[in-house]
């Protein structure tokens, strides 16, 4: 599905960041007004409603005492207040939605990524956890809705929308989840009800908090007895209201843990068309089901039947059949969630078997896609028919099973994060919705089981983390080696508007799109291995690790504490209080070592005398840092090597920028260049005179902001403009303004031996008009003086003032998917492997999206992570961009793409290595894309890793020496 939103102005990279990282229309909402409305609705006996009316089938609305006339059918329910309707009309916000008279297509809301349906679910969630939320008083408003009308509407809704195959295959998880909230004959969401009831009791009676944590985190049938005993123990302290709430909680729990009613399910199955082959499979399953069978027997059978339903649901089924099957799937899933809690393996083999079957159940319930399951199935079956595995094989199994947990959580976020972010802006309790949904799925127990396996493997291999003595140590996983000392900042909500301090250590759900330098990071959503943030962290030696959502919550109590944080090259993680640091760890932070980190941007060979626009064919690798930056130089080299896979281009060299900087800066009486150098020399003077570094930095940022804005308005030299128009026409065969192009910043600070400037400066996408190209040139020239770019290079470069931007102009290629190739196995460490990350559309993978990531070897390709980014950009010939949405039922890369990537990587290694002593002897970082299965190359640069971090004696000392070939018996006790 496409949503065309043509942009006439140049699309800045920052706008792309905003698009991809969930900053939705909530930023434009009148937040304070909405908060006032919510409070008004809570206090109003009629909530968001005005009165009771008849809604007739001819579209007329009549008073409550005046039914639809004659044979005209109608339904009676509440009508919305005018301000409720205004919120829907102006801001696409739907509060207190009554379904009975709602247009079904509008409710499906495909144009807005099903926002209205998802809002209905969030409304239900908020009502359950906040005493009715906006329905606090109107839940007792008699006649506001008729449940039988709501259920009838729900049945008709699903019967209308389920017959189309792609709706099910593309939205399987969403549909199953929606059935838990939208009234119809088979609706039930007892798990959410249990959690909300336990929360209500704990909020009113804090002594129940431990019981609530148990019910939320690790629910089992024993919890029913636990709640009964709690009520008996505190009988005298409980109010009548609390006693009633505890009894309701016990009733809900009893219903959840009641034996499966196979008789009722058989009746439901019998309603499926006899011609439907799944009908007989389900009847056979129910005939053979026994609630007293061991969970080791029943969980695999339940996982299998869930996959049968998902696989066969589109085969010759009616809308009614499909509704019945989805309801049955939810019923079987509820049973599986109970049975899996009873399955407590006590050996390695038992844990691995449980993980294998729960992973299959994740596929059967829509948490992962079927193609994803088929890619990892061989890895999760590697232990079958074996009595022992090596530590390396156990770690491979653990890595794969961790992936299933992460992909499952990411599926929930991919479906709901955008709407949750919108609601969280005015109702913070909305942020708990995603966590609640994850805990309603098999991902909860799967995550716990994987954690147990990780703990045992860590114990066997001496690969242990040391993170604040938390319980689930095995969930931490190092991504980049390094160490840091700083204040710990734990951010549970969206990070996009958080002020980032370079001296602090941050823990994010997902890092902000324009992350400024930090001392260290941990993330629940790691994005992908080759995003700009990951690459910058990697080459700066910033410690970076992944953790679970529960780990993040556990660390929140240390927010604001000063901590020491380290990640070894093998990925074990240390996080401890500053007071617990050893002498060796304290010695790491001497000023002497800090100062040696900075390197100088080489300017000795720079050619500022070349002030004409260059054809990209006329520049090569030897011109990098002299005439232009490495993007243009290396792409020019690639054009010679791979002429069919590289576009044409023109280059605006350093000299043209430098010549323009000799103009007088308005209101300053000096040139732009003098103003720039004065800024840095004055900053050095302040430092030498003991001025606080924060004050010095603030002085520089204020001055650079003024410089940046002045460059935006700088007049372009007429001779340069004429030259550009001529060279543009010659290179692209068309006049400037008729071919959409990319304007790529290309500075002399990028791709130094110890520093990559990946993603620090501006790229403008698909610019078409002449005026926008001319304005875009100035914006690119100004981009090194943005706060983010300045802070990253200030942290690492000793002469950040000597940054010269050139500009590479290349025609846009409307690729279907794009990404990054690293000619090295980042995770495996094998130089002959390839790491590949791709997202749909333009600008794929590099900006931190949850990309499809693969480890490609000479003969195999392993799925490290599937894509979970629902939004992407395309580049039409008319300029600007179109925003598009996608689902995940199929992979991005096909077999031909993988073959072409292997071939291209071999050619890059061979050709680039033969270019002489300046050629990179290590790995290469290549940006590429596919259009109609044709591979296009957009950039190549050396892949830079931080040698100080990798060679640090301290990091070597905390890296365990592991014999990965050592065999471990699968009968080993847990």
Description of the structure:
By secondary structure, the chain is an alpha+beta fold. It has 6 domains: 2-188, no CATH class; 257-343; 347-461, no CATH class; 469-595, Glucose Oxidase, domain 1; 601-811, Dna Ligase, domain 1, CATH 3.30.1490.20; 813-961, D-amino Acid Aminotransferase, Chain A, domain 1 (2-Layer Sandwich). It has 35 helices and 27 strands. The strands form 6 sheets. It has an 8-stranded mixed sheet. Strands 22-21-20-19-25-26 form a 6-stranded antiparallel sheet. A 5-stranded antiparallel sheet has the order 14-15-18-16-17. Helix 22 (532-540) links the parallel strand 10 and strand 11 (544-546). Helix 6 packs across helix 16 (319-342), helix 9 runs antiparallel to helix 10 and helix 19 (391-424) crosses helix 20 (432-439). The two termini are 49 Å apart. The model is unreliable at 1-27, 591-596, 754-759 and 916-920 (pLDDT under 50). Belongs to the PEP-utilizing enzyme family. Its cofactor is Mg(2+).
Class of secondary structure makeup? alpha+beta
CATH superfamily heading of the largest domain = ATP-grasp fold, A domain
Q: Using the coordinates above, name the CATH class of the largest domain.
A: Alpha Beta
Q: What is the CATH topology descriptor of the largest domain?
A: Dna Ligase, domain 1
Q: How many domain modules?
A: 6
Apparent shape = globular
Question: Which CATH architecture of the largest domain?
Answer: 2-Layer Sandwich
- If you compute it from the alpha carbons, what radius of gyration comes out, rounded to the nearest whole angstrom? 30 Å
Return the average pLDDT rounded to an integer: 87
- Low-pLDDT stretches: 1-27, 591-596, 754-759, 916-920
Number of strands: 27
What distance separates the N and C termini?
A: 49 Å
The major β-sheet equals: 8 strands, mixed
Question: What percentage of the residues does DSSP assign to strands (E)?
Answer: 5-15%
Strand order of the largest sheet: 6-13-12-8-9-10-11-7
The number of helical segments is 35
Oligomeric status: single chain
Helix content: 40-55%
């Amino acid at each position: 599905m496409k949503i065309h939103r043509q942009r006439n102005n140049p699309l800045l990279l920052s706008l792309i960041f905003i698009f991809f990282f969930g900053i939705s229309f909530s930023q434009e909402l009148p937040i304070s007004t909405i908060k006032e409305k919510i409070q008004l609705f809570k206090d109003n006996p009629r909530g968001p409603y005005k009165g009771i009316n008849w809604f007739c089938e001819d579209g007329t609305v009549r008073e409550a005492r005046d039914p639809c006339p004659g044979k005209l059918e109608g339904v009676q329910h509440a009508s919305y207040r005018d301000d409720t309707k205004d919120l829907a009309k102006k801001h696409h916000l739907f509060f207190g939605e009554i379904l009975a008279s709602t247009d079904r297509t509008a409710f499906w809301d495909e144009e807005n990524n099903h926002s209205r349906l998802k809002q209905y679910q969030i409304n239900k969630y908020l009502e359950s956890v906040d005493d009715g939320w906006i329905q606090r008083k109107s839940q007792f408003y008699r006649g506001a809705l008729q449940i039988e009308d709501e259920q009838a509407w729900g049945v008709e809704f699903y019967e209308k929308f389920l017959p189309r195959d792609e709706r099910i295959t593309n939205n399987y998880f969403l549909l199953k989840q929606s059935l838990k909230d939208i009234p119809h004959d088979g609706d039930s969401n007892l798990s959410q009800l249990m959690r909300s009831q336990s929360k209500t009791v704990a909020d009113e009676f804090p002594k129940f908090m431990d019981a609530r944590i148990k019910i939320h985190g690790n629910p089992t049938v024993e919890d029913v007895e636990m709640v009964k005993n709690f009520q008996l123990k505190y009988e005298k302290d409980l109010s009548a209201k609390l006693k009633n709430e505890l009894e309701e909680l016990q009733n809900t729990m009893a219903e959840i843990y009641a034996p499966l009613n196979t008789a009722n399910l058989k009746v439901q199955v019998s309603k499926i068309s006899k011609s439907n082959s799944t009908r007989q499979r389900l009847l056979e399953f129910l005939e053979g089901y026994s609630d007293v069978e061991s969970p080791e027997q029943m969980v695999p059978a339940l996982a299998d039947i869930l996959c049968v339903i998902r696989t066969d649901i589109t085969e010759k089924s009616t809308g009614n059949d499909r509704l019945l099957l989805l309801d049955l799937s939810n019923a079987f899933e509820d049973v599986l969630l109970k049975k899996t809690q009873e399955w407590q393996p006590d050996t390695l083999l038992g844990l691995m078997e449980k993980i294998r079957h729960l992973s299959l159940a994740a596929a059967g319930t829509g948490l992962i896609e079927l193609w994803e399951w088929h890619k990892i199935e061989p890895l999760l079956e590697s232990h079958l028919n074996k009595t022992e595995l090596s530590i390396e094989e156990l770690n491979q199994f653990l890595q794969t099973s961790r992936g299933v947990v992460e992909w499952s959580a990411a599926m929930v976020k991919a479906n709901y994060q955008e709407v949750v972010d919108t609601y969280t802006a005015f109702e913070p309790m909305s942020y708990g919705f995603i966590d609640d949904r994850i805990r309603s799925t098999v991902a909860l127990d799967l995550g716990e089981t994987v954690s147990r396996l990780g703990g045992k493997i860590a114990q066997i291999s001496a690969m242990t983390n040391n993170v604040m003595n938390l319980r689930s140590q095995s969930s931490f996983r190092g991504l980049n080696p390094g160490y840091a000392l700083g204040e710990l900042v734990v951010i549970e909500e969206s990070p996009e508007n958080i002020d980032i301090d370079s001296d602090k250590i941050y823990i994010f759900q997902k890092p902000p799109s324009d992350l400024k330098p930090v001392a260290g990071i941990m993330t629940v959503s790691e994005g992908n291995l080759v995003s700009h943030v990951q690459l910058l962290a990697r080459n700066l030696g910033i410690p970076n690790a992944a953790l679970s959502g529960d780990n993040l919550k556990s660390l929140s109590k240390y927010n604001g504490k000063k901590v020491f944080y380290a990640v070894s090259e093998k990925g074990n993680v240390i996080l401890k209080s500053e007071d617990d640091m050893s002498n060796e760890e304290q010695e790491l932070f001497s000023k002497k070592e800090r100062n040696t980190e900075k390197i100088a941007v080489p300017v000795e060979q720079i050619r500022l005398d070349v002030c004409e626009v260059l054809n990209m064919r006329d520049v090569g690798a030897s011109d990098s840092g002299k005439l232009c930056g490495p993007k243009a130089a290396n792409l020019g080299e690639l054009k010679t090597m791979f002429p069919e896979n590289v576009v044409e281009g023109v280059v605006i060299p350093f000299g043209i920028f430098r010549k323009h900087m000799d103009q007088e800066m308005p209101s300053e009486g000096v040139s732009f260049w003098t103003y720039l150098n004065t800024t840095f020399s004055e900053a050095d003077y302040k430092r030498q005179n003991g001025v606080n570094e924060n004050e010095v930095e603030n002085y520089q940022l204020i001055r650079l902001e003024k410089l940046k804005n002045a460059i935006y308005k700088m007049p372009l030299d007429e001779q340069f403009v004429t030259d550009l128009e001529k060279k543009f026409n010659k290179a692209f065969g068309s006049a400037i303004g008729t071919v959409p192009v990319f304007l790529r910043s290309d500075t002399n600070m990028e791709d130094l031996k110890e520093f990559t400037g990946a993603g620090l400066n501006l790229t403008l996408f698909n610019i078409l008009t002449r005026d926008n190209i001319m304005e875009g040139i100035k914006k690119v020239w100004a981009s090194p003086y943005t706060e983010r770019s300045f802070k990253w290079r200030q942290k690492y470069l000793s002469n950040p003032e000597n940054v010269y931007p050139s500009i590479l102009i290349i025609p846009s290629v409307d690729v279907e998917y794009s990404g990054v190739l690293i000619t090295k196995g980042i995770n495996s460490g094998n130089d002959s492997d390839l790491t590949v990350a791709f997202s749909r559309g333009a600008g794929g993978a590099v900006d931190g999206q949850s990309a499809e990531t693969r480890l490609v070897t000479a003969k195999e390709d392993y799925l490290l992570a599937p894509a979970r980014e629902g939004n992407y950009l395309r580049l039409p010939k008319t300029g600007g961009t179109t925003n598009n949405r996608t689902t995940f039922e199929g992979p991005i890369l096909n077999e031909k793409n993988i073959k072409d990537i292997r071939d291209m990587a071999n050619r890059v290694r061979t050709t680039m290595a033969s270019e002489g002593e300046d050629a990179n002897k290590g790995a290469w970082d290549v940006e590429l894309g596919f259009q109609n299965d044709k591979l296009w190359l957009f950039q190549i640069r050396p892949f830079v890793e931080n040698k100080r971090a990798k060679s640090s004696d301290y990091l070597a000392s905390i890296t365990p020496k592991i014999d990965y070939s050592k065999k471990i018996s699968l009968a080993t006790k847990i």
